[in-house]
Design goal:
Blueprint (H helix, E strand, L loop, with lengths): L1 H35 L8 H24 L1 H21 L3 H29 L4 H32 L3 H4 L1 H15 L14 H24 L4 H23 L13 H30 L5 H7 L1 H21 L1 H22 L10 H23 L7 H28 L10 H29 L18
Helix pairs in contact: 1-4, 1-5, 1-7, 2-3, 2-4, 2-8, 2-15, 3-4, 3-7, 4-15, 5-11, 5-12, 5-14, 8-9, 8-15, 10-14, 10-15, 10-16, 12-13, 12-14, 13-14, 13-16, 15-16
């Protein structure tokens, strides 16, 4: 058990590295754009250059964990992430930095499903896994808060390259510890052939889908690149589904989607990131546009929500063990929805951070309670040999949901009568933030219906055997 605890600490630390990079770059964006001469049109690719390959390759990364070994993919992800971070820190022009961010996304696409599938394989479904996911989620949430603060401090003290260089010792330490404590990969039973046609069509289709969602709000939904990407994504994903029904060893076994708990988890993950996750993005705009915060004050403003997310995430597993996963999911979604409603009520009249505290607290607690349990659902009832693909599906839904949420909510935030120029200034931002919270509250109602219709995998019906989780 002590070795399992050390392994859990390592997997949570790897999640922290991914989460840290997610927010640390945002703070340094203005300085990077200024020093490397990014234009207004290309600056978004500092973020999109990472998000597009990361979101598009997660499914492939998850299946590689099953076929090639979770430990190997964990190490590969860390090495790629470290090398790309070094290249990003030394980049001297936009092309070099965007290329480095793309390789970072590739590393993350192997690393994230490896951490989640290792938890699914190493910890027995139920109480052990719920506790492990609480630790994993809580540390990941703290990484986002740390990134917001560390990004500002590193950029002001050492310059923007430091936000990339900081990943190198973290990844190196994680690699050394992984070699010592993670169990060696065992040869997969059966033929284990690699589904190349499925990998090519599925990966390309998801990349084009994420690209369309990321670029749509910026370029316009009727622009040629966005329409072309959307059509290409639809054709490739249709071909992918046809291939998966016919090949002997598919990248995504169709039978896995017949697991009702997994389907519930994937649905909630998708809706959660398109609503709960998107609000964090608009919160920074609200802090600066309405409350007048600077970059460092904005980072401090995130300490309350991220701190409560950490506490609630750490409590989610024990609560799930005592009351059941479904009840904790419902509680988290309901509390978070109440927070969104509270933020919507005070958004246009708030003149200080204190006015937001009650809504922010409820939203953050709900987010923290929901996050570990939705991933627990996505790994429940899944055989150990398929934990990688289940993790890949879950993380793909997370990224596509996040991209879709921003694609739909950014126009709502900016439309005339909301956050657009028709009102202007702080009032525009405040009303846009109000509309975003109301729209997200509508998504919360859908999530509650899905959660109510689900049932706990840890409480099988009378006479029904619990699903196997180990080989």
């Amino acid at each position: 058990m002590p070795k399992e605890r050390l392994a859990l600490g390592l997997l949570a630390f790897a999640h922290l590295i991914i989460s840290l990079d997610y927010t640390i770059v945002f703070v340094a964006l203005p300085e990077i754009a200024r020093e490397l001469h990014f234009s207004g049109q290309t600056m978004q690719w500092i973020v999109s250059g990472y998000v597009v390959p990361y979101g598009g390759l997660l499914l492939l990364g998850g299946r590689c964990c099953d076929l090639l070994g979770r430990r190997r993919m964990f190490l590969l992800g860390l090495v790629l992430f470290a090398l790309a971070s070094a290249a990003g820190g030394f980049a001297s022009d936009p092309v070099a930095l965007i290329a480095a961010r793309g390789v970072q996304g590739l590393g993350g696409a192997f690393l994230f499903p490896a951490t989640l599938s290792l938890i699914g394989a190493m910890f027995e479904e139920g109480a052990q896994r719920n506790r492990a996911l609480s630790v994993w989620a809580g540390v990941g949430g703290s990484g986002m808060a740390l990134g917001a603060l560390l990004g500002g401090a590193l950029t002001q003290t050492f310059g923007w390259p430091a936000i990339f260089f900081v990943n190198i010792p973290l990844c190196a330490a994680a690699c050394l510890i992984a070699l010592l404590i993670l169990p060696r990969d065992h040869r997969r039973g059966g033929p284990g052939r690699f589904d190349l046609p499925g990998a090519l069509t599925g990966t390309a289709g998801i990349i084009l889908l994420v690209l369309a969602l990321v670029e749509g709000p910026e370029l316009g939904w009727q622009s040629g690149p966005v329409v072309g990407s959307a059509i290409g994504a639809a054709l490739l994903l249709a071909a992918f589904l046809m291939i998966e029904r016919r090949v002997r060893d598919p990248l995504m076994p169709p039978a896995i989607l017949r697991n009702p708990t997994l389907a519930t988890g994937l649905s909630i993950i998708f809706l959660f990131t398109s609503s709960f996750g998107a609000i964090l993005y608009f919160l920074a705009i609200y802090f600066q546009g309405v409350l007048g915060f600077d970059g460092f004050e904005t980072g401090l403003g995130y300490l309350l929500p991220y701190g409560l997310i950490l506490v609630a995430s750490s409590s989610s597993g024990p609560l799930g063990n005592r009351f059941g996963m479904r009840r904790v999911l419902l509680l988290g979604i309901a509390v978070g929805g109440a927070g969104m409603a509270g933020l919507a009520l005070v958004a246009t009249g708030a003149s200080s951070y204190a006015a937001l505290i009650s809504g922010l607290a409820l939203y953050s607690i709900g987010m923290g309670l929901t996050f570990p349990m939705m991933f627990a659902a996505a790994t429940s009832g899944v055989h150990a040999r398929d934990q990688g693909i289940a993790s890949g599906l879950a993380s793909t839904c997370q990224q596509v949901g996040s991209a879709l949420g921003l694609a739909l909510l950014v126009p709502l935030f900016n439309q005339p009568g909301a956050g657009g120029a028709a009102i202007g200034g702080a009032a525009a931002v405040a009303q846009g933030f109000q509309y975003v919270n109301l729209a997200s509250f509508g998504v919360v109602l859908v999530m509650m219906v899905i959660a109510v219709a689900s049932r706990d995998p840890q409480r099988p019906r009378k006479g029904e055997a619990a699903p196997a989780t180990a080989e």
